[in-house]
Amino acid sequence: MTVQNEPLLKDMSLLKKAGYINGQWVNAKNGKTFDVINPASGDVIASVADLGKDEAKTAVIAAENAFLDWRKITAKQRAILLRRWNDLILENQEDLARLMTFEQGKVIMESRLEIAYAASFIEWFAEEGKRMNGDIIPAVANDRRQLSIKQPIGVVGAITPWNFPSAMITRKCAPAFAAGCSFVCKPAAETPLSALALCELAERAGLPPGLLNVIPSTQAQEVGDVLTKDPIVKKFTFTGSTPVGKHLLAQCASTVKKASMELGGNAPVIIFEDADLEKAVLGALGSKYRNAGQTCICANRILVQENIYNDFLKAFTEKVSEFILGDGLNENNTMGPVISEQAVHKIQALVDDAKAKGATIVTGGAQTQGQFFSPTIIADVTEDMRLFSEEIFGPVAPVFTFKTEEDAIKMANDTPFGLAAYFYSRDIGRVWRVSEALDYGMIGANEVGITSEVIPFGGWKESGLGREGSACGIDEYLEIKYICMGGL
């Protein structure tokens, strides 16, 4: 298939179609490529090298060699290079955003925000790397001294998702580099171009060959096997679905790798009767429909106290009706497509299940054209519907009712997932009670914009292991070494 609509960028050298290994742009040994599709138009925007197991092994070896030198560089020297990379990303923000919208579909405003978000992790961890402090431990005897130090774990393997194709890479590789580690990443096959553009800018910033390696591939199992089973790889990090995460985690056990997992969610937004209704409507709107509902922390269930249910539904519907669907590169459009036709079918199946069990489609409820799904609100939803227990990953808002605070907490916690939860209330006592009662790793009380580079991002239960961002994030890439100095 020939390329029909190649992205137009100010700097066309950011459009890379080969993998990046040991500082070199490489094609597959067997010559295979795969097409990257614009989800808004269905056009092929690039044919990218389809690397496999052999190239992944080569990348791991290159990363090991780079690690041996990189770990010896001072934290301050590493920070200087990372800051250069951060600056180059921000200087090229518009091109990177356009590239992201072409391959992922989100509206251009959201893409610009993601590029800034991606850069923020590099800036944050460039500085955090200077604070990898150890401890002096009080001696247990006068003839010895005891201390602990932190050292980089080694080569890091990563598999990243398509919904945030830049930020989910930098959130992982920035702390790895700051800690002194090297990195091998397989980006999602839907969105490899954003990852490869980051490599081009990393090279310009002066990051040494082999430090950052990116394996574009449709051969997920083969490449995943290398990253999870190769003993050279000492740490594995993944963002994606819980079933895939469980499988990869089991594979990591064969070499007892340190692993961090950011997995699926089923986020509730609870709106209590004493909430500021206008703020609650806007919060639910922003949380649910960001990136066409394709985020792991977006609202999956909206729980509204019964005596304000109708008022909320009316105000919410009015706001949702204002969305404009279309190509994300058009500044006037406010929602783009979902990532694939398969995603459309899954969303439609969840809507149809709710309709068949008695739910009411307030607005939307169907595919409009191509891979666009109309922003949807579903009322009269009950807990036996798939929408209650399954992650939607699309622009569908199921609205439930509850009677009491205890009912709301029980409904919200009735899930194996525990990534993010939100609620609205002006009762300070309730804010404390509900925040502590919700079994989730991240809570937004009267706020849904909870993420940034400075917070510990991660979930409870089957939503993941470990934390990304914040001061906690760099510890995921460090080992603690205890040293006892005797004979004093």
TrEMBL record:
<dbReference type="GO" id="GO:0009450">
    <property type="term" value="P:gamma-aminobutyric acid catabolic process"/>
</dbReference>
<dbReference type="InterPro" id="IPR015590">
    <property type="entry name" value="Aldehyde_DH_dom"/>
</dbReference>
<dbReference type="InterPro" id="IPR016160">
    <property type="entry name" value="Ald_DH_CS_CYS"/>
</dbReference>
<keyword id="KW-0560">Oxidoreductase</keyword>
<dbReference type="InterPro" id="IPR016161">
    <property type="entry name" value="Ald_DH/histidinol_DH"/>
</dbReference>
<feature type="active site">
    <location>
        <position position="262"/>
    </location>
</feature>
<dbReference type="InterPro" id="IPR010102">
    <property type="entry name" value="Succ_semiAld_DH"/>
</dbReference>
<dbReference type="InterPro" id="IPR016163">
    <property type="entry name" value="Ald_DH_C"/>
</dbReference>
<dbReference type="InterPro" id="IPR016162">
    <property type="entry name" value="Ald_DH_N"/>
</dbReference>
<dbReference type="InterPro" id="IPR029510">
    <property type="entry name" value="Ald_DH_CS_GLU"/>
</dbReference>
<protein>
    <submittedName>
        <fullName>NAD-dependent succinate-semialdehyde dehydrogenase</fullName>
        <ecNumber>1.2.1.-</ecNumber>
    </submittedName>
</protein>
<comment type="similarity">
    <text>Belongs to the aldehyde dehydrogenase family.</text>
</comment>
<feature type="domain" description="Aldehyde dehydrogenase">
    <location>
        <begin position="25"/>
        <end position="483"/>
    </location>
</feature>
<dbReference type="InterPro" id="IPR050740">
    <property type="entry name" value="Aldehyde_DH_Superfamily"/>
</dbReference>
<dbReference type="Pfam" id="PF00171">
    <property type="entry name" value="Aldedh"/>
</dbReference>
<dbReference type="GO" id="GO:0004777">
    <property type="term" value="F:succinate-semialdehyde dehydrogenase (NAD+) activity"/>
</dbReference>
